[in-house]
Specification:
Layout lengths: L1 H5 L1 H22 L23 H11 L2 H9 L5 H9 L4 H39 L7 H7 L1 H22 L3 H18 L12 H12 L3 H16 L5 H20 L1 H4 L5 H21 L13 H9 L3 H13 L11 H6 L2
Helix pairs in contact: 3-6, 3-8, 4-8, 5-6, 6-8, 6-9, 6-11, 7-12, 8-11, 8-14, 9-10, 11-14, 12-14, 14-16
Length: about 350
């Protein structure tokens, strides 16, 4: 019918124009969500291949300490009582000594957590170097064929969200460190030798203070570290890095919403791990990508990811929904659709 009315050449021209315009539109919108990666990323059993081994060993040394760091942070009780008594009784030297004796070992722990964040950033750089290399054509191939490295990347994200959740609910951390700095400053003015001063010099104390001043210090370490990785590798397009993040989010979403994949998880713990990683990588993408995760052109299917979260038992995901609500960078931008904003209300 079309051919009779317009002639074959005209129809072919229209089709060609449609394809060209379609491809141009696809480039301009930078999204290809219908091409979601569809494979099972084995978060439980992935083992490094010979090609992955060197990077994997390097990162494994750091990750082995991650659990102990979380345990120490969870057990962190602070010196609130001793500090209160010392402040209320400024002339009681015994109480001042007690508060100082309580705070010094705690500051040692806070320093240890901060130093671990630096090691974590170095591990992240090693993984990003491997996952954005030219070994494979695209992020999907990298994550599918380098599953042990993808698993380590996921473990870093999981640790980051766990650490920041614990830190956010523990005001003692900043109170202890502030008291330590004030007391140390007073001791220096009065020329009193201070135990613990050698452990944290002034420059380090400033860096530690800035680290804990952030609501989500480990996430900030990762986002700054990823941005730094991009700026240090100028020959690497930023998309190579952000596409690894968006692909990881898509892989998690697809595994969680596909019964065939989800049934392969041996425990509900892996489901929770997968949910946390999906949220962590969305937040990281939102910080690192120039326009964030919530715009229409985002390579992350935000509606789909939020729906996956909403489909879980509410008490198991409220913390993750809050992380999207309160720790992302671009959610409240004008470019974020009303649908996404209302889904997160």
């Amino acid at each position: 019918c079309l051919e009779g009315k317009f002639g074959l050449a005209s129809v072919l021209h229209s089709c060609l124009l449609y394809v060209v315009m379609g491809n141009l539109l696809k480039v301009l919108t930078c999204t290809d969500l219908e091409q979601e990666p569809n494979f099972f990323l084995d978060f439980e059993n992935a083992q490094p291949t010979e090609a992955e081994r060197e990077t994997w060993d390097e990162v494994d040394v750091v990750l082995k300490d991650a659990l102990a760091i979380l345990d120490e942070l969870q057990a962190y009780k602070g010196a609130g009582q001793e500090i209160r008594e010392a402040i209320q009784n400024p002339n009681d030297e015994a109480l001042q000594d007690q508060a100082w004796a309580a705070v010094v070992p705690l500051v040692g722990k806070l320093k240890k957590f901060y130093e671990f964040s630096q090691r974590l950033e170095a591990a992240l750089h090693s993984l990003l170097r491997a996952l954005t290399s030219e070994t494979y054509d695209d992020p999907t191939q990298h994550l599918e064929r380098e599953q042990a490295l993808a698993k380590q990347f996921a473990e870093i994200l999981h640790f980051t969200l766990c650490f920041d959740e614990l830190k956010m609910t523990n005001p003692a951390i900043q109170n202890d460190f502030s008291y330590y700095r004030r007391t140390l400053s007073r001791m220096r003015i009065n020329n009193v030798p201070a135990e613990g001063e050698n452990e944290v010099n002034n420059e380090l104390a400033n860096r530690i203070s800035l680290f804990y001043a952030d609501a989500t210090p480990m996430l900030k370490t990762l986002s700054d570290g990823t941005t730094k990785f991009v700026s240090e590798n100028k020959n690497l397009p930023i998309e190579n890095t952000t596409d690894v993040l968006s692909t990881m989010a898509s892989v998690c979403k697809v595994m969680l919403e596909t019964p065939e994949y989800r049934s392969r998880f041996s425990s509900e713990e892996t489901v929770s791990f997968c949910l946390r990683v999906m949220v962590g990588v969305i937040i990281l993408y939102d910080y690192v990508h120039p326009v964030g995760a919530f715009v229409k052109s985002s390579k992350i299917d935000m509606k789909g990811c939020i729906k996956v979260l909403r489909d879980q038992p509410p008490n198991s995901v409220e913390g993750l929904l809050n992380a999207l609500r309160y720790t992302t960078k671009h959610l409240n931008d004008e470019s974020t659709t009303k649908t996404i904003k209302s889904m997160l209300q």
